Amino acid sequence: MKVAVLGAKVVGSTLGKKWARAGHQVMFGVRNTQNPQVKTLAKEIGAQVGSLAESIEYGQVIVFAIPGRAMAQVIQAHAQGLNGKIVIDATNRMDGGPLNSLALFAEHAPEAQFLRAFNSLGWESFENPRYGDQQADLFYCGAAGDAQDIVEGLIRDVGLNPVRVGGIDQVHLVDHIANLWLTLAFGQGMGRQFAFKLLTR
User: Residue 79's Cα: distance from chain center in Å?
Assistant: First the structure.
């Protein structure tokens, strides 16, 4: 699978490493393709580095792991390239509106297959998803079918257990889980080293 990870900070780099090690072809999409840290990262894991446009064209799956404040500009600038792609919104917009960018994708790239995932846990749980003998769950939403199968495979390749809460109409539920994580981590002082688990009988 060709995976374009837009952004190579801690979330993007952690996910990119996991997917490259699982055998996926990874390209990091960044504004400065000559950034020495990004070039070193890509060389270490056998990934590529490209511009945002190059990465969007390259990827079968496009993962947004850029700062929330940049989402509107990037989506608008690359809307045509995003149409028809499987798009994972892993970015939380902390500007007082919705955490997700579903409305932006619906307006500018309505033919993109939107899924919301990797936004409700800290990057530490992507790097090490095991808590004792438990595997952390990752709650996500998005369309059923091929896109669901592909994204669930990518979630498992990170080491997390995927839990789909519904289609994109349930994006608010995924964001509520993100808000719960943020509240516990920072509002209640629990720190970042925790995750969620759905228990069933």
Answer: 18
CATH class of residue range 2-187: alpha beta
**d(Cα 90, Cα 123) in Å, to the nearest integer?**
11
DSSP class of residue 160 equals P
Taking the domains of the chain in order of start, what are their residue ranges?
2-187
What are the distances in angstroms from CA 129 to CA 15, 38, 47, 142, 198? 12, 24, 22, 22, 14
Three-class SS state of 109? coil
> Residue 184 phi/psi, 5° resolution?
-70, -40
Per residue in 22-61, pLDDT (tens digit) is 999 999 999 999 999 999 999 999 999 999 999 999 999 9
Environment class of 199 (CB within 10 Å of its CB; exposed 0-12, middle 13-18, buried 19+): exposed
Tokens 């390259």 appear where? 58
- Crossing angle of helices 146-158 and 10-21, rounded to 10°: 100
The 10s digit of each residue's pLDDT in 121-168 is 999 999 999 999 999 999 999 988 999 999 999 999 999 999 999 999
| 43 token code pair | 């060389």
> What's the pTM?
0.96
Cα–Cα separations (whole angstroms), residue 138 to 29, 107, 161? 24, 27, 6
